[in-house]
Task: structure prediction
Amino acid sequence: GFFLHAEDELLSLESSFWQYQPSSNRLITNTVLAGVGISQPMGVRSSLNMMFLWTLNNAFEDLAFNLYGNPEIRFAVIF
Result:
């Protein structure tokens, strides 16, 4: 069936990788993702899920790079 999904993701990234010059060597970011999904049962206790998630806040818009494309498409096998 169909379902709604939301998540709040807090990441600590190495600053040197992103070509960003902060005051420390770590870059902390918080991203809120929300979207819809579909779940296909594969047995009594398992399913195959596909989700389409969009970024609700863009903390890096002024830094000219994004962590996620919109929509982000995810596949998952749930046991």
